[in-house]
Specification:
The chain is α/β, with parallel strands linked by helices. 36% of the residues lie in helices and 28% in strands. Bound molecules: adenosine-5'-triphosphate and magnesium ion. The site of magnesium ion has 4 residues, from helix 1.
Length: 252
């Protein structure tokens, strides 16, 4: 589904990604871990099409299309969803209207009719129940005066409503209390299917503990993926941090 080849990215002349290769197939869940500033959010932004980055080398393919020339909207229409590490606030726009607009924009790109009020309300009800969200939550202004946890829950809510092919969740676990963490993880488990893929960026094992353990984990270190593995690698990181990484073997 997603194929990243030898990706090099700079911001204002500073090299951030230094040759990232990543293959995500349909039905897979991948996890990226790595120290602060290693380039995780940059990688997420590049896939989603955020501007301000300079791709100096390499390519990003999604469903065999080169993404580099596509706008963020075109990428969303293809089925890419990015939850933000720091979600934006849009005063005066309710969650439900924001999601309805996003769903209809995707449907328009596919020559489909607008979603009916009945269909959207039944989806809202089902997903609100799954995420333990009050029914009137969706009528609040997007992220305005939301607590940190509410923002994150709302991101997962949006993902489940939009039903994207590739979801990128950047630090979706930060600021969640223990119950919300479990609910959000279970939401991700419920959402996952053989038809979609999920890319999770996190610093901590605690989110992954609630996830189905068939994920593939990668360590992004100084702009490169230097290790990939399974949950054993997560356990090692939790115990030893990043100090065991042999600096001599990392060529930048
Ligand atoms: N818009 C920008 N302008 C200048 N430098 C930037 C910009 N965005 C990111 N950087 C720099 O790029 C590097 C990678 O940042 P990025 O946000 O991708 O890291 P990260 O791995 O997501 O870190 P964290 O774990 O703290 O979220 C950092 O050194 C950061 O300061
Ligand atoms: Mg980040």
């Amino acid at each position: 589904m997603l194929s990243i080849k030898n990706l090099h990215v700079s911001i204002e002349g500073k090299r951030i990604l230094k040759g990232v290769d990543l293959e995500i197939n349909t039905g897979e869940t991948h996890v990226i871990m790595g120290p602060n500033g290693s380039g995780k959010s940059t990688l997420a932004s590049i896939i989603a099409g955020k501007t301000g980055y300079n791709i100096t080398k390499g390519n990003v393919y999604f469903l065999n299309k080169n993404l580099i020339d596509l706008s963020p909207e075109e990428r969303a229409h293809l089925g890419i969803f990015l939850s933000f590490q720091y979600p934006i606030e849009i005063p005066g726009v309710s969650i439900i209207n924001f999601i309805k607009t996003a769903i209809n924009s995707i449907r328009k790109a596919k020559n489909m009719d607008k979603i009916s009020a009945r269909e959207i309300l039944s989806k809202v009800k089902k997903i609100s129940n799954q995420l333990n969200i009050e029914n009137d939550f969706v009528y609040r202004s997007l992220n305005e005066q939301f607590s940190g946890g509410e923002r994150k829950k709302n991101e997962i809510f949006q993902m489940m409503m939009l039903n994207p092919l590739l979801s990128i969740l950047d630090e979706i676990d930060s600021g969640l209390d223990i119950d919300a963490l479990r609910i959000v993880s279970q939401g991700i488990n419920t959402f996952r299917s053989e038809k979609n893929s999920v890319l999770i960026i996190t610093h901590y094992k605690r989110l992954l503990d609630y996830l189905l353990s068939d994920y593939i984990v990668h360590i992004l270190y100084n702009g490169k993926i230097i290790h990939s593995g399974d949950e054993k690698l997560v356990k090692k990181l939790e115990k030893e941090g990043y100090n065991w990484i042999d600096q001599k073997n990392i060529h930048c």
